[in-house]
Write a structure and sequence with these properties.
171 residues; alpha+beta; elongated; 6-stranded antiparallel β-sheet
Length: 171
């Protein structure tokens, strides 16, 4: 099953539950990390900061950044990338243009934003980006890892050839 669909389906079962027992009103990353771990059996990699999570998502081989939302992808507007008037937030794109995330007022995971209200708050008011990150399938990840290994080996061969050339010059 597609990981984004699996994440979406599990997140729907978390609506109305407290998924951020430690950080409470600033618990969007904590809540999303818990839902991610429970749904997929793997760690997201950050439990507290939208700023650090955004930087991680940009480099994490499991994700690809999209310019548009897809069901089950992550949506993030990170603190530190806006005008400083509000804190950032992260959620999961749901159906009917809704977004599932930690609701700091109720201390529950729910669908209190739509794509429109998120954009109004975090992009227009907060000056932050509204970025979407989709989980890649295993084949995409394996292919990218193999390409990176080939690139690294090619660079090593070129470096070794240069070393040999320089040694010949010294003789």
């Amino acid at each position: 099953m597609d990981k984004n669909l699996k994440l979406y389906q599990y997140a729907k079962t978390c609506i109305g539950k407290n998924k951020a027992p430690l950080l409470k009103t600033l618990g969007c990353v904590e809540a999303l990390s818990a839902v991610f771990r429970e749904a997929l059996g793997e760690e997201l990699g950050e439990n507290a900061s939208t700023y650090r999570l955004y930087l991680l998502l940009e480099k994490d081989v499991r994700f690809e950044e999209l310019s548009y939302p897809v069901l089950g992808c992550l949506v993030i507007s990170p603190t530190g990338f806006g005008n400083g008037s509000i804190r950032g937030h992260i959620g999961i794109v749901s159906d009917s243009e809704k977004i599932m995330s930690n609701n700091s007022d109720l201390l529950l995971f729910d669908e209190h934003y739509t794509l429109k209200t998120w954009r109004e708050r975090y992009v227009e008011l907060g000056g932050m980006p509204m970025s979407f990150f989709k989980l890649k399938n295993e084949e995409q990840i394996e292919t990218e890892v193999i390409k990176k290994k080939i690139d690294l080996l090619t660079k090593l061969v070129l470096l070794w050839q240069e070393v040999l050339r320089l040694l010949k010059l010294k003789q």
